[in-house]
Amino acid sequence: MSKKVLLTDHPWPDVDIERGILEAAGYELVAGPIETPDAATVEAMVAEHDPIAIMTCWAQVSATAIARPATLKIVARLGVGLDNIVIPAATARGAWVTNVPDYCVQEVSDHAVALLLDLWRGITLFDRDVKAGNWNPAAARLHRVADMTVAVIGFGRIGAATARKLARGFGCRVLVTSPSLVAKHAVGHELEPGIFVTDIATLQREADGIVLTAPLTADNRHMVNDEFIASLQRTPIIVNISRGPLIDNDALVRGLEAGRVRAAGLDVIEGEPSPPASVTQRPDVVATPHIAFSSAAALAELRRRSTEDVVRALRGEQPLHPCNQPGESS
After folding, report:
1. What is the residue range of 237's domain?
2. Does the structure show a pLDDT above 70 at 37?
3. Are residues 114 and 10 in the same domain?
4. DSSP summary character for residue 317
5. 120 and 88 inside one domain
6. Identified catalytic residue from 68, 290, 305, 312
7. Cα of 130 vs its chain's centroid, Å
8. In terms of domains, do 172 and 109 share one?
9. How does pLDDT run across 96-129, given as a tens digit for each residue?
10. Quick one: 203 exposed, middle or buried, by C-beta within 10 A (0-12, 13-18, 19+)?
11. Is residue 173 among the annotated active site residues?
12. Within a domain: residue 323?
């Protein structure tokens, strides 16, 4: 049986953490590139090395890649979202799929708040202006953050942390929604001081800012589309720190141009790592390259915990963060 563990990609400069944990357990790490390879390259790496485990950060792990190893015990995502792994294929062949669901809650929620503050207080906008040689405080059209109503779509760990920081730290009125919240509570129910359950129609009427933290699914792909934007009443800022395809890029541009959306703060954009210039080059868009999760502490925790779960699976133990039940029929 193979003793190789394939790491498809790693957007950090070394693999010392992963290699140290795996070698101590008796396994060999085969590391792919820092840059994200395409699905065909991952499939070729799997065919070459016949790994017993696959670890992936951004790379797509296809059904073909999952089917190729003689024995495959686990496909581990170094991150939270699972849209780059064909989970049914892993489940069908008896392999675990894992993630690390809570390693970057503080970083991502901080980033969401930072993008809102940047856009409401004009930080990037006026920094660009000053660097261009202008000094024009009379041009400021800024906002008192405590007067803002912010909607958070998705109320998992990151959504909840974002809502609490805005309500407790800045005094915002925060509206939160998710399918499970709406099923359990009436619209208007106060979950915590300053945080209220809402639905999409209400937040479209009342929100000055909208933060997307929901996981990407087939049902919510392009949830921010022309129809969604047409119903916005308060010209809100839209912030996305979840997955790019939650927003239809062309619809967002149309909304910005029509004045239905005030500005956008985007850590994720459909089409990354080469997102469309029609979005990124706009002065009313502040974009960061999918780094909301990142801090030295978060990355070290992510790498250690993900690799430790791989070792558990290879020893025949249940991982701490399983995302499937191997062998179950779909």
Report:
1. 105-287
2. yes
3. no
4. P
5. no
6. 290
7. 32
8. yes
9. 999 999 999 999 999 999 999 999 999 999 999 9
10. buried
11. no
12. no
Peptide bond into 273 cis (omega under 30): yes
Asked if residue 76 lies in contact with residue 52, where contact means CB atoms within 8 angstroms, the answer is no
pLDDT digits (tens, 9 = 90+) for 42-69: 999 999 999 999 999 999 999 999 999 9
Candidates 10, 111, 243, 303; catalytic one: 243
User: What are 64-69's contacts with CB under 8 Å, separation 24+?
Assistant: 64/39, 65/39, 66/90, 66/93, 66/95, 67/93, 68/43, 69/2
290 is catalytic: yes
Percent of the chain with pLDDT over 70: 99
Instruction: With CA atoms as reference, report the closest residue to 64 among 92, 40, 82, 38.
Output: 40
Say if residue 330's pLDDT is above 70: no
Q: Which of 111, 272, 303, 305 is catalytic?
A: 272
> For tokens 């007067």, what's the residue?
147
DSSP per position, 207-240: -SEEEE-PPP-TTTTT-BSHHHHHT-SS--EEEE
Q: Residue 46: which of 24, 75, 23 has the closest Cα?
A: 75
